[in-house]
Design a protein that fits this description.
Order of helices and strands: EHEHEHEEEHHEHEHEEHHH
Shape: globular
CATH topology of the largest domain: D-Maltodextrin-Binding Protein, domain 2
Strand content: 15-25%
Number of domains: 2
Radius of gyration: 19 Å
CATH superfamily of the largest domain: Periplasmic binding protein-like II
CATH class of the largest domain: Alpha Beta
Largest sheet: 10 strands, mixed
Structural class: alpha/beta
Helix content: 25-40%
């Protein structure tokens, strides 16, 4: 029997970045957090499948996901309970569920990271389309597109361009000897080491290298065209979880300006969604960067077909 003084949180966000938030919540509320973290390589997918498997006997109260597309799957499967936190109301409408099943916070962006010792600012890729050019043949990498934010990015491109144009783009990347590494962190490490001149990764991984003084720089791609993909963390209440009231308290906490400010100032460099959240100057204002015009629902709806394409074509 679980005591009323605890909350079970499944966390797809990186443990080294999320754990301090959980500890702060414990210190401030006295509620004991029992976390379950995911691994970097099966990020998101493993916990989503676990929550679905536990549908008839829920073990978690809250899921802190590191993106949204697979959150939609949980909503569709009836895994989530509605909860509209008072702290959700200042988040942009396209970053929260209209029915109250999940709320986004602390966004990341998909960015290009390049090695400044090997590529000049002038020659640096400004668009994800640049990687189809002969100059980049065999010189760039992405993370495994079946998982995490890379999978969501593929799905967003399918949603934005339609299936035919998206498939041609990814075939062009494959024909241009695109390297696929295990994770976004490995994209960062490979670019830092000069194994590849550039790669597509997330702002948190890119900023980690920049903050450590590595010889790399970050580009928000396609700023003058179809825009950069932003995707938030999402937090949600699990339907039938053992400690729903503590779950709601935890959700209120992670959606607070204080937590968004901490995430913005952390190594994750997560971009606040709430209005007027204090943040370092180097963290961009989300409304000042041209954002890819796809909804979280669009990404979710294209996930299955885009993943099938990745499995059958891109990874063969």
């Amino acid at each position: 029997m679980q005591s009323p003084g605890e909350v079970v949180v499944y966390v797809a966000h990186d443990q080294d970045l999320s754990e301090p938030i959980l500890k702060d919540f414990e210190a401030e509320t006295g509620i004991k957090v029992k976390p379950l973290y995911d691994t970097e390589t099966t990020k998101t997918v493993g916990l989503v499948n676990k929550l679905i498997a536990e549908k008839n006997n829920p073990q978690a109260d809250v899921f802190w996901n590191n993106e949204v597309s697979r959150t939609m799957k949980l909503k569709d499967e009836g895994i989530l309970a509605k909860y509209v936190s008072p702290n959700s109301l200042d988040k942009p409408a396209n970053m929260r569920d209209a029915e109250g099943f999940w709320t986004g916070f602390g966004a990341r962006a998909r960015v290009i990271l390049y090695n400044t010792d090997l590529v000049s600012a002038e020659d640096a890729p400004k668009s994800i389309l640049d990687f189809t050019q002969p100059f980049w043949n065999g010189k760039f990498c992405i993370a495994n597109p079946l998982f995490g934010s890379t999978g969501s990015h593929v799905s967003a491109i399918f949603a934005l361009w339609g299936e035919d144009k998206a498939k041609k783009y990814f075939q062009d990347l494959k024909d241009n000897s695109m390297a696929i590494v295990e994770s976004n962190g490995m994209v960062r490490d490979a670019v830092v080491a000069g194994e590849y001149l550039a790669g597509i990764t997330d702002t948190d991984d890119a900023y980690e290298a920049i903050s450590e003084g590595k010889h790399v720089a970050m580009v928000f791609p396609d700023a003058d065209d179809f825009g950069t993909l932003f995707f938030p963390n999402s937090v949600m209440l699990v339907n039938g979880g053992p400690n729903p009231e503590n779950g709601k308290k935890f959700i209120d906490y992670v959606l607070s300006a204080k937590v968004e400010s901490k995430l913005a100032g952390s190594q994750a460099m997560q971009i606040p969604l709430g209005k007027g959240v204090p943040k370092p100057d180097y963290v961009p204002d989300i409304e000042k960067v041209n954002s890819m015009q796809v909804t979280q629902e669009d990404i979710s709806q294209n996930l299955e077909s885009s993943q099938r394409y990745v499995q059958e074509t891109l990874l063969t």
